[in-house]
């Protein structure tokens, strides 16, 4: 088939999009998945949308996704009628030509534009024939930045319709151990809270978000058009060695440096505040509020200065003074009285701020200049280049300049260039009710300097990203990537030299480089290099720009990044309209959108217990309350122990498994010849107040009640030997629908109608939705969503059910929805006894694979009997008529 070449470039207009929302009768988004994998703070996210044209005629089908500004798109594909159309990244000029031709033919252009503070929207469309389907797949990558002590992964979910098969899967892997992790954002509140599952185990964490179709319409920011909101995963990692985290793979390395055990150094800060007429109204009011709060936070050992400007300069004091109670009081009075008037003389004001700092040399301190403005210079020196060169001369690399651009009337590029030329960054402050918080938030990021003149030195390293940093602040992180000469680790010696107050400190780590096998290390290097080249380009004169641009372009092409210099070209079927989209080039160092606003209560999920290292002693004492059930399940349903099978001789030979005690957390396998000891299956029960969960074993060929409510009944068959989990799972919904799931197929009986399903598909029976995927079956019934994972280990296949969305009906019972037990530790180190409901119980330290995740990680647990764990006889959960 002949095809026309068509392009999709990312296009940087700040125009309001006229969003044509799809008409549900026309086309149906039947599946929408977001899959994000984060390793070493590098996030790769894949958005897959599957859409069917339900019409009798061909139809233009749209795909819209919002991605973080800081991210680069690295792949876009469409699948239509069994054919794949793969995007290719090309130089923008090249793509531009094709675009112009297309537009001159009257064809439409697709757009990527900035949306709000932190997102960009990617939008394209394709014509799909009657009753055909299209799959869109977009991949983007981003390096998460540490700010105020955490990393934030923002996932925007807005499929534009309620979707039957909707899910978000996030997997975080951090070799340095995840210190804490929680879920925030508008989608993690209220109605949707119980559709989120968060599990955290040392180096790994999982977040699953599986809202049902009904829920997608009823949540806060959702409506008939389905979901529209953010899921924000917030976490931090442990920081043990002072040199930080250094990983290498295939000759590339990435170094994350964020030492925590340093003392703060006193600072000298001068605030230069624009009070020109354009600041009138809420802006000046919020500036006053923010300034007063910031003054409140200055430490007694800090010195500060405060000047406001329009076409003239107004001083609180002509020099820096110590942040004593008295001085702060007087400065706050000055701040309260700031009024808007006059024009904007940025040049004079910044030079004066620099003069004040230069006139205040103080050994062992860190100086910072902060400019807040909302407009272009229109008084005094107004030539932008002249201002930049004056400021550069005045500051002379002595301290960083941070520029805060308030609103959209500022020439942000001018501020950004000026900050970068002076070792700082620029940030946009959005005109909104929380502008004062944005200002304060930015200040907090630089409030606690820990090091100055940080030099990151890598002997045996080459092609390094930026290595010199004027200051390092508490809560932030320095990241350097590069190549290792000849990939020789022996001669690769990293070290950091910096000044902490008056002392020179040196961070060394002889064997700190950890070798991993991960292509992403190289991509992190490419990502950082491109970002920094683009920043560098801003600071250069026209004549110098070309070389840097060329370098950035080559890397963008090689790593298939859609940057401001490249475009993605997609080949679509003949006769298609042309889309050209460019990546926006605004906003400053991307993602500088101020703190995320979605800091609403992070509900029960944030209380998800984390599993400390094996050697860590558990908390002192525990009291268990009846807290509402979370979808995390007080119960994880993991594992039994699967012995190696090679020793199996005949039917009589069965493996008896024992959990050994804590320290090693290994299990021993003993062969016996008893005929009656069947294989045991191990289940986790979450225990509030214990750092690791409880676990118990169930053995025998039995059928367990997994979940039982008014409408829904789910049971599962455990096998007596060989298998690791359930062989089949049976679901009854009302009296009409019955579903049997085994490792091969699904049998659905809906009234009189019986159907069998083996391939991937979506099956609807009454109000039940069953989504069969390759490795899992996803069942949505009312407000409950259960996923049945298909595990394959050692040649065996078995099923493992997980609750992804808990019912609001609290009359639900079963092994999947156990209430947590009330646990108290009776005696610690070594812990051997627990008190559950006032009863003392002996426990032993053990571990088990957690089959509620695909990777089945091994988690530690306290092993107790089923009766103690369930607080009732196991028989209550056994369905007798097998
Ligand atoms: C998500 O992406 C990762 C990495 O590409 C892949 O290994 C994993 O199978 C994906 N998960 C799902 C549920 O598709
Ligand atoms: C740095 O921040 C952490 C919290 O994020 C805090 O515990 C620590 O005390 C701070 N260090 C200094 C020197 O202020
Ligand atoms: C890395 O640096 C070497 C010179 O040190 C240069 O020849 C090579 O092209 C660089 N590689 C990349 C990918 O920039
Ligand atoms: C980085 O700092 C080191 C030590 O202070 C200095 O020798 C080097 O020239 C600096 N490099 C750059 C690129 O500024
Ligand atoms: C070097 O490696 C050993 C063994 O892995 C470890 O015990 C030691 O703490 C490491 N040293 C440093 C400085 O990281
Ligand atoms: C145990 O739980 C109770 C109530 O949930 C809480 O007040 C207490 O701080 C917890 N104790 C520990 C050691 O976590
Ligand atoms: C459960 O599955 C096993 C193996 O797939 C099969 O032999 C058995 O008959 C099934 N049990 C029921 C009750 O369907
Ligand atoms: C369900 O639980 C809530 C709060 O835990 C309680 O107020 C309500 O009465 C319970 N409903 C039923 C039917 O038990």
TrEMBL record:
Domain VIT: 13-142
Matches recorded under InterPro entries: ITIH, VIT, VWF_A, vWFA_dom_sf
Principal localisation: secreted
Keyword list, A-Z: Coiled coil, Glycoprotein, Protease inhibitor, Secreted, Serine protease inhibitor, Signal
Sequence ranges assigned to domain VWFA in this UniProt record: 268-446
Cellular location(s): Secreted
Signal sequence, renumbered to the chain: 1-20
Residue ranges that the Swiss-Prot or TrEMBL entry lists as coiled coil: 531-558
GO annotations of cellular component type: extracellular region
An MF annotation (GO) of this entry: serine-type endopeptidase inhibitor activity
Alphabetized Pfam families for the sequence: VIT, VWA
SUPFAM superfamilies (UniProt xref): vWA-like
Family stated for the protein in its record: Belongs to the ITIH family.
Name of the protein described by the UniProt record: Inter-alpha-trypsin inhibitor heavy chain 3b, tandem duplicate 2
Gene: LOC118310142
């Amino acid at each position: 088939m002949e095809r026309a070449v068509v392009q999709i470039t990312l296009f940087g207009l700040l125009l309001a999009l006229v969003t044509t929302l799809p008409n549900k009768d026309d086309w149906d988004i039947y599946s929408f998945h977001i899959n994000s994998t984060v390793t070493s703070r590098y996030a790769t996210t894949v958005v897959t949308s599957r859409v069917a044209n339900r019409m009798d005629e061909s139809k233009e089908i749209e795909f819209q996704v919002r991605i973080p500004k800081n991210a680069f798109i690295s792949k876009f594909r469409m699948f239509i009628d069994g054919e794949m159309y793969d995007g290719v990244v090309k130089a923008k000029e090249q793509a531009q030509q094709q675009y112009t031709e297309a537009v001159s033919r009257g064809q439409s252009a697709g757009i990527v534009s900035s949306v709000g503070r932190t997102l960009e929207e990617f939008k394209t469309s394709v014509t799909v024939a009657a009753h055909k389907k299209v799959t869109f797949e977009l991949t983007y990558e981003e390096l998460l930045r540490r700010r105020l002590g955490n990393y934030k992964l923002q996932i925007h979910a807005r499929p534009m319709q309620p979707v039957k098969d909707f899910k978000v899967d996030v997997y975080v892997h951090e070799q340095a151990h995840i210190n804490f992790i929680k879920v925030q954002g508008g989608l993690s509140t209220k109605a949707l809270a119980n559709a989120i599952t968060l599990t955290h185990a040392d180096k790994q964490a999982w977040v699953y978000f599986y809202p049902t179709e009904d829920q997608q319409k009823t949540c806060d920011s959702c409506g008939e058009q389905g979901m529209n909101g953010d899921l924000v995963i917030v976490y931090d990692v442990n920081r043990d060695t002072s040199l930080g985290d250094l990983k290498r793979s295939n000759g590339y390395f990435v170094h994350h440096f964020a030492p925590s055990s340093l003392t703060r150094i006193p600072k000298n800060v001068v605030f230069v505040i624009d009070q020109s007429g354009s600041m009138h109204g809420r802006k000046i009011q919020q500036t006053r509020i923010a300034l007063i709060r910031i003054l409140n936070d200055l430490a007694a050992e800090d010195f500060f200065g405060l000047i406001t400007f329009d076409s003239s300069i107004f001083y609180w004091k002509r020099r820096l003074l110590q942040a004593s109670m008295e001085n702060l009081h007087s400065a706050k009075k000055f701040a309260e009285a700031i009024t808007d008037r006059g024009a904007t003389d940025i040049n004079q004001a910044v030079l004066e701020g620099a003069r004040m700092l230069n006139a205040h040399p103080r050994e062992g301190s860190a100086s910072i200049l902060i400019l807040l403005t909302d407009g272009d210079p229109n008084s005094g020196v107004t030539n932008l280049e002249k201002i930049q060169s004056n400021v550069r001369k005045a500051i002379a690399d002595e301290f960083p300049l941070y520029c805060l651009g308030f609103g959209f009337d500022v020439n942000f590029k001018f501020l950004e260039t000026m900050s970068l030329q002076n070792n700082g960054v620029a940030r946009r402050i959005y005109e909104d009710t929380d502008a004062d918080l944005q200002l304060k938030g930015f200040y907090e990021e630089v409030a606690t300097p820990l090091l100055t003149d940080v030099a990151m030195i890598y002997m045996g390293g080459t092609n390094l990203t930026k290595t010199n940093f004027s200051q390092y602040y508490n809560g932030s992180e320095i990241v350097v990537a590069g190549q290792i000469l000849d990939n020789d680790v022996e001669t690769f010696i990293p070290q950091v030299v910096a000044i902490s107050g008056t002392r020179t400190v040196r961070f060394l780590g002889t064997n700190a480089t950890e070798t991993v096998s991960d292509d992403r290390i190289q991509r992190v290097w490419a990502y950082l290099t491109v970002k920094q080249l683009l920043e560098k380009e801003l600071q250069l004169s026209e004549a110098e720009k070309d070389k840097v641009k060329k370098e950035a372009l080559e890397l963008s092409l090689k790593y298939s990044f859609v940057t401001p210099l490249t475009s993605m070209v997609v080949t679509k079927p003949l006769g298609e309209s042309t889309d050209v989209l460019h990546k926006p080039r605004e906003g400053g160092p991307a993602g500088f959108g101020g703190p995320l606003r979605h800091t609403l209560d992070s509900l029960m999920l944030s209380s998800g217990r984390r599993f400390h290292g094996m050697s860590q002693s558990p908390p002192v004492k525990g009291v268990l309350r009846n807290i509402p059930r979370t979808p995390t399940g007080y119960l994880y349903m993991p594992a039994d122990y699967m012995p190696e099978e090679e020793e199996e001789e005949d039917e009589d030979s069965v493996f008896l498994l024992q959990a050994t005690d804590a320290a090693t957390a290994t299990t021993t396998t003993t062969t016996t010849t008893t005929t009656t000891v069947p294989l045991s299956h191990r289940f986790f029960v979450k225990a509030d107040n214990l750092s690791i969960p409880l676990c118990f074993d169930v053995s025998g060929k039995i059928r367990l009640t997994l979940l039982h409510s008014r409408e829904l009944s789910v049971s599962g068959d455990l096998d007596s030997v060989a298998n690791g989990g359930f062989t089949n799972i049976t679901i009854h919904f009302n009296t009409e629908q019955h579903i049997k799931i085994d490792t091969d197929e699904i049998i659905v009986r809906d009234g009189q109608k019986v159907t069998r399903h083996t391939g991937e598909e979506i099956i609807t029976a009454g109000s039940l939705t069953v989504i069969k995927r390759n490795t899992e079956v996803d069942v949505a019934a009312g407000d409950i969503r259960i996923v049945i994972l298909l595990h394959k280990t050692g040649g065996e296949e078995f099923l493992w059910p997980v609750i992804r969305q808990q019912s609001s009906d609290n009359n639900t019972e079963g092994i999947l929805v156990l209430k947590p037990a009330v646990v108290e530790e009776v005696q610690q180190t070594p812990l051997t006894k627990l008190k559950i409901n006032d009863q003392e119980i002996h426990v032993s330290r053990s571990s088990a694979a957690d089959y509620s995740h695909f990777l089945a990680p091994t988690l530690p647990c306290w092993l107790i009997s089923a009766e103690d764990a369930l607080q009732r006889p196991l028989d209550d959960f056994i369905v007798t008529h097998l």
